[in-house]
Every structure is written in structure tokens, then in C-alpha cells.
Amino acid sequence: MAKRTFDLLLASFGLLLFAPLMTVIALAIRLDSPGPVFFRQQRVGRHGALFRIHKFRTMVVDAPERGPPLTVGDDARITRMGRFLRARRLDELPQLIDVIKGDMSLVGPRPELPRFVALYPDALRERVLAVRPGLTDPAALAYLDEGDRLARAADPEREYVDVLMPAKLRASADYAASASLGSDLRVLARTLVLLCGGGSR
């Protein structure tokens, strides 16, 4: 209950604080390329419940038909505005809406696509999905350069499934087992510091 109250208060404050910036971003996206401002995609939430995540659109509208589900390095599907947003992770700001709705938390394992969750080992799946997914967590911070790592791989999706995803899962499961308001505040503080540099998936 305390974590949910914490999420609601901070997410509501964040939406009010960033509303002018988000309005400017929305206008820039519309001017930069044809298509909607927001990108919505089905992700797996707490206890396996499906929800639609909100992000600012950073790719061309037909990106899913033009390539893999993973964004790798200097992906040609990313728009000019999209590169700017991803470099600073500003594309994630609309997920404050998902936090207020209760689909996400400020801190928690990053929500994954159903096709990848189906590959989770049973023990780790239960632990990671026991908490709401979040905007950030220790695993997300450790792999801010994920797109560049995948770009260097001969088979990016295999590298993600066999190497990156298991490592992130273990870190997320460890977080879920020991999370507290204090640890969440530390993760949020680290996120703000690191994202003065940044990256996104």
C-alpha cells in the first residue's frame, strides 16, 4: 500500500511537472514524421496480466513490419526526433500514465513482450512477475547500452534471449525479493543521475 501511494503521488507530480515538456515533444513528433504521437504495445504486467504500455513514438509507423521486435544500435526505423528522445529516454515519460493507472510502478522490472516472457524459466518468471513492472530498476540501469551491445552481436535476438535477458532477469528477481521504499528512492536517484547521459529500448 505504501509503495502504491508513493507511486501515485510521484507519478502525478511528474505528469504535472513534465506536462509542458511532453506537449512540446508531442508537437515535435507530429511535425517530424507522419503518425500518432504515442506508441502503444502489449506487455506483460504483474502476475502475467497483459496491458498496453505508453511511449512517445520514436519509429516510423510501420516499424513492426519492417524489422525485428528489438531495437538494435542505429536502427534505420528510428525517426530523427526518435533518436533525440531515445538518447535521453524521454520516450518513456508517458509511462507515468501507466503508473497512475496501476499497470506499472516507478521502480520495478521493465515490462517485457509476451513472446519473451514465454521463455522465462519458471522460477524466475514467478519472482519477476510478482511485482508491478517499472519505469526503471537496477537491471535497466546496468544495461542502458543494450542497443549497442545487440548491434555488435552476429544474431541480436539470440544474444538478447541467451545472454542479456537471463542476466537482467536475475537482477530483476533480486530486486523484487528485497525492494523497499528506500531502495526505490536510491534507484530513482541513480536513474536521474545516469540519464543526464542516457539510452532506451
Considering the chains and any ligands shown, give keywords for the structure:
201 residues; mainly alpha; 4 strands
Structure description:
- By secondary structure, this protein is mostly helical.
- The chain has one domain (2-194).
- The protein is built from 10 helices and 4 strands; from the N terminus they run αββαααβααβαααα.
- The strands form 2 sheets. A two-stranded antiparallel ribbon has the order 1-2.
- A hairpin with a 5-residue loop joins strand 1 (38-44) and strand 2 (50-56).
- The longest helix is centred in the first third of the chain and has 31 residues, at 2-32.
Record the SSE blueprint.
Blueprint: H1 2-32, E1 38-44, E2 50-56, H2 63-66, H3 80-88, H4 95-101, E3 105-107, H5 114-117, H6 122-128, E4 134-136, H7 138-142, H8 146-151, H9 156-178, H10 181-194
Helix pairs in contact: 1-4, 6-9
Poorly predicted regions are none
User: Strand-residue fraction?
Assistant: 5-15%
| Oligomeric state of shown chains | single chain
How many domains would you count in the coordinates? 1
Q: What's the number of helices? A: 10
Major beta sheet, strand line-up:
1-2
Q: Using DSSP, what is the number of strands?
A: 4
Shape: globular
Secondary structural class: mainly alpha
Distance between the termini: 30 Å
* Helix percentage: 40-55%
Element order: H for helix, E for strand: HEEHHHEHHEHHHH
Mean pLDDT: 92
